Amino acid sequence: MPGAPLPPLDCIASVSDRILNCYVSSEWDNQFLTRLGMVLRRDNDGNLLPEPKRVHGETKGISVVGPSGEGKTTLVKKAVARALGDHLDDKGRGKHVVYCRVRSDATIKGVYMDLCRLTGFSSFPARMTNIEAKHLTVHRLQLAGIRVIILDEVHNQLGKNDRSVNLFLKSFLQDGRGFCLIVIGTSRLRQFILRPENDELPRRLPEFPLVPFKPDASISLINGALRDLTREAGLKFGRSIRPRPICRTSDF
Known about the structure:
Elements: H1 9-20, H2 27-39, E1 40-42, E2 48-52, E3 62-65, H3 72-84, E4 97-101, H4 108-118, H5 130-143, E5 148-152, H6 162-170, E6 180-185, H7 187-193, H8 201-204, E7 207-209, H9 216-233
Parallel strand pairs: 3-6, 3-7, 4-5, 5-6
Antiparallel strand pairs: 1-2
Helix pairs in contact: 1-9, 2-3, 4-5
């Protein structure tokens, strides 16, 4: 700002970090919140609760699908925090929510064990079957008060034993276990869910695709956020920064 004293360098660095990490909502956020309202219960004031709706003793979830790098993970985490006020720590643990990224080298049992570790349990028996791992995981999650499970990069499990993946995903939604499951993945996950042999999955995990939208509204929000933050830091836009980014045809 002309004539204004420059803030300390550490303050500028802090605000610069805030600018770089600033999250600007898009149409996807409200659409996903609407989808959450279809699978989670509400209190008497209409606020979403970390408690899944039950239909004939079973719960449902959401499959969030889109290309890599489109912001699926950030979208889900931000929307869940906004809707439920449940913020995840660095390990992926919240009060009623857990986030687990499916490792490319993990087995189904390995994913169960990773979920157990998120509840603070790591004393596994030397030999354990998938069924035993499932029962242990469900018990630990219920004991910890977890109601919403976010599984990221689920496509990493596909192509190994797809029938086991089918059963693994359904295991959280059947028999009144009381979980809402949010799975995140690429088009491979979508293709897997829609396979004829997995005919129950589309009903249990309805799809939320990241459909491209015209970014005009988001550009306005981004510019406003940048103006406010840079003004706070006593900074000005460089001449090389365009007020409106050039949009690629793939953005539409």
